[in-house]
């Protein structure tokens, strides 16, 4: 199905009771949008519906985070079986000898699912300027900025999946349509560079509109912008604007700009964006307390394995345990069904050089002696009740990545290594700082290793490898990068659905 058609079939998600109970309703083309968008609450519910749809397992609830995308990075053990083994051995590429035709049932929903949510955002954006008078305070700017920024974010995600990287020389290669209006016309397939120009345009506009975001101002948001955390949040150091992290907020716009400029290879502008977040980091995104990063057996009500206080943008996924059962933690399924055991945790593939690293000691669970399975997203239930603002989340942007981006962009390696050590020291490696005399080459190796350690299960390593156009095909490089599959260079670019190209 052509992506432009999603403007006719896109589903808005609304509620008659609360923002937690969403139902798909009539297609946008048949909706009386004047009724939906007649109040601030209607706009908020429409945005909440977009976020709810993004949590589905075919999107950020599994496949575009710790599922397919993480598997493609080669981080999981070679013993995996079934569909995920096909992903890891790049059987999703039509040009590969082991191509599996059934793969489209896994990959096409990524393309169609994201474009459906882009359509919903465009439906909102088409009406908001004419309804400016219904908003109180600065809520018009914030809601518009949030929708505009999220639309750019989703296009950028698609570009990174379906377009070649700049580093591979793919700037002028057709990649994705950038759909920024409701239309029945087929949208043109833009080159990587043309699409990136529109992504940056919308992110810059989003950043300006969101300047008074409560997340930026450090104020309590009105209910229409975000519900407050639980009643006891203040005693745990959780700020009143905490739940704005589940929305595309001011800092999410800046962080996505930093990613976009890095993708282009524009280190000057990427560093400027990163530094703006780092300047506010201690006040807005304090480092997680080590006492909250504990194994499931030692869980407390404050268990925080996804670093909630460091999260810039995240999704709340109520069914996260169901989505990962039998894949990355020991749920109700058999041990033999563990398809996604991180190679980084194995004896032969470890990239953790310190015995005190929290990410190794507390974010993996060992079974049968040698099998270690990530428990990062496993939400403890039963005897211990973990507070809601510390669980059921998948982070899409975290502070650590901003420090790594700054370290890549900083020309002086003696300064850049301090950015990397800022993260390492909070992960139990305060007694193992990098050498003040570290070279740029060695620092880049450390940054790559940090992506491997820090973002297990989040999909970010694959994007890092693609952005750098790393050659992981040789056995020698496989050993260096601690990957478990022989990577084929053409596998960095996902194939678009057949009818996207066939009907243009």
UniProtKB/TrEMBL annotation:
It holds the Pfam family SusD-like_3. Residues 21-215 form the SusD-like N-terminal domain. Residues 343-463 form the RagB/SusD domain. It is found in: Cell outer membrane. One of its GO terms (cellular component) is cell outer membrane. Keywords: Cell outer membrane, Membrane, Signal. Belongs to the SusD family. This is SusD-like starch-binding protein associating with outer membrane. It comes from Pseudobacter ginsenosidimutans.
């Amino acid at each position: 199905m052509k992506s432009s058609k999603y403007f006719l079939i896109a589903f808005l998600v609304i509620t008659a009771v609360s923002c937690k109970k969403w139902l798909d309703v009539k297609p946008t083309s048949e909706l009386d949008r004047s009724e939906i968008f007649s109040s601030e609450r209607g706009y908020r519910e429409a945005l909440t519906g977009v976020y709810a749809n993004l949590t589905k397992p075919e999107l950020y609830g599994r496949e575009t985070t710790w599922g397919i995308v993480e598997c493609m990075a080669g981080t999981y053990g070679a013993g995996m079986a079934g569909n995920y083994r096909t992903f890891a051995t790049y059987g999703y590429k039509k040009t590969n000898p082991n191509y599996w035709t059934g793969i489209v049932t896994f990959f096409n929903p990524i393309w169609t699912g994201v474009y459906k949510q882009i359509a919903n955002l465009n439906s909102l954006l088409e009406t908001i300027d004419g309804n400016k008078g219904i908003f109180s305070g600065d809520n018009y700017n914030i809601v518009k900025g949030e929708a505009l920024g999220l639309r750019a974010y989703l296009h950028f995600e698609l570009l990174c999946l379906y377009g070649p990287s700049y580093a591979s020389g793919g700037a002028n290669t057709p990649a994705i349509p950038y759909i920024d209006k409701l239309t029945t016309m087929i949208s043109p397939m833009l080159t990587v560079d043309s699409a990136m120009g529109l992504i940056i345009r919308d992110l810059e506009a989003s950043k300006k509109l969101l300047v008074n975001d409560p997340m930026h101002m450090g104020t309590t948001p009105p209910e229409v912008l975000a519900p407050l955390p639980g009643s006891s949040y203040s005693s745990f150091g959780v700020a009143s604007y905490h739940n704005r992290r589940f929305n595309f907020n001011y800092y999410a716009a800046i962080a996505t700009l930093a990613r976009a400029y890095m993708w282009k290879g524009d280190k000057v502008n990427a560093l400027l964006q990163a530094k703006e977040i780092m300047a506010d980091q201690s006040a807005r995104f304090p480092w997680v307390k080590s006492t909250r990063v504990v194994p499931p057996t030692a869980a407390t009500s404050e268990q925080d394995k996804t670093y909630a206080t460091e999260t810039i943008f995240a999704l709340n996924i109520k069914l996260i345990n169901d989505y990962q059962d039998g894949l990355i933690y020991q749920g109700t399924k058999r041990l033999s069904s563990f398809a996604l055991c991180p190679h980084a945790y194995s004896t032969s593939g470890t990239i953790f050089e310190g015995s005190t690293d929290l990410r190794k000691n507390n974010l993996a669970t060992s079974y049968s002696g040698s099998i270690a399975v990530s428990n990062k997203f496993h939400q403890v239930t039963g005897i211990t009740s973990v507070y809601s603002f510390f669980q059921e989340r998948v982070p899409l942007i975290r502070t650590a990545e901003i420090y790594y981006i700054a370290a890549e962009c900083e020309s002086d390696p003696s300064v850049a290594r301090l950015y990397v050590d800022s993260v390492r020291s909070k992960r139990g490696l305060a007694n193992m700082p990098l050498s003040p005399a570290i070279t740029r080459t060695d620092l880049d190796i450390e940054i790559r290793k940090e992506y491997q350690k820090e973002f297990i299960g989040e999909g970010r390593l694959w994007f890092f490898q693609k952005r750098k156009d790393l050659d992981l095909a040789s056995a020698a490089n496989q050993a260096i990068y601690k990957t478990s599959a022989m990577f084929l260079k053409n596998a960095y670019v996902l194939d678009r659905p057949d009818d996207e190209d066939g009907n243009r």
